[in-house]
Amino acid sequence: MTDRMLRALGDALRVARKGDLCSGVELASRADVTQSTVSRVENGQRVSSVETVEKLIAALPFPTDEAERLTSMARDAYAFAAEDKRVDAGLSLVPSATRRLVASVRMVRGFQGATVPVPLRTHEYTAAAGGTPESAVAWGKVLTAEGKRLRFVVTESALRTWPGSGACMPAQLDHFLAVAERPNVTLGVIPWGVGLPVMPPHGFTVCDEAGVLVETFTAEMTLTGSEHVSTYRDAFDALETVAVTGEDFRRVVERAADDIRQIIQ
Length: 265
Description:
It is a single chain. This protein is 53% helix and 13% strand. It folds into two domains: 2-84, 434 Repressor (Amino-terminal Domain) (Orthogonal Bundle), CATH 1.10.260.40; 91-264, 2-Layer Sandwich (Endonuclease, Chain A). α1 runs antiparallel to α5, α4 runs antiparallel to α5 and α10 runs antiparallel to α12 (246-264). It has 265 residues and is of the alpha/beta class.
């Protein structure tokens, strides 16, 4: 029932937007949300909160009674979903579940503020960070699978923080630049001095609409509830807007590599 309400709500918003000759980008600007949020709502998918949906309804020229009906529908849909959830729903601590989830989807989006993302680490960085060469090989196979799309954002601090002696970093940053040249990969870095639109307390990896991976000191958590996925997708989209790519990305990485070489020599 909840899915039907979300689809009906999305259809109504799409029809109204097109009738108003409004693009998804323009509606996102009006409602102060991301364009991907507009797309997900119109496709009948849950987003981080019902308040986001209410902002989209308010941004379109619905008659008062229709706006009230859609707002009530949205609140009911999100309330029903919350009632159906168990306390532990959407959380998995199964070892190696992360790689299996990444392998099962076509689009992977990840953010790290303090370390190199696990899937992009070299063998040497992996070992210095306490992992195993086998882990690095396994991740490499997953991420080079045909049809896989990868989007990662890191802060400049992640490029300048290293495990152990730091001897692994020059090769790691060279690998970062090489990976960025792959046609299925988009890498961005948020330079020092740039304010963050959101402040994630930890790194994360979003796997399509299937789940979110969060790594802690003691476990790899897989969050699969739609509300988790929507929240992290919105966070990634916001962080990606302030990241530099292309030649600007290369300059930041090369500058970090030069500085590190001077420090560790």
